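Input record (one chain):
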Amino acid sequence: MRLVKMIYELTTSLPVDERFGLVSQMRRAAVSVPSNIAEGAPRQTKKESVQFYSIARGSLSELDTQIGLCSDLRFLSETEIAEVSNRLETVGALLNGLIRFKKSGT
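The corresponding structure, as predicted from the sequence alone:
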C-alpha cells in the first residue's frame, strides 16, 4: 500500500499531458499489486493464490518499466527514481517470498 501511495504522489509531478498516458498506467499498475495479493490470499488452492500473486508480480514489473521511462524522459529526479526503485525491489522480494512460501505448501 505504501508503494501505491508513493506512485500517486510521484505522478502528481508528471506533465499534465501525461495524465491519461503514463500517469494513468502507473497508477493502475501500482494499484494492481496489492489488489491481486488481496484477491489471491483467500483462494481455496495454492495454485489459485500463486496465480494472483504472479499477476501482482507482473504489475510490479510493468511499473518498473514505467519508472524507467520516467527516468529516460527526465520526468522524475534521480533521488525520486532511486527511492521508488528501492521500494519496487523490496516489494518484489516480499512477493517472491510469498510465492515461494505458497508453492511450498506450508
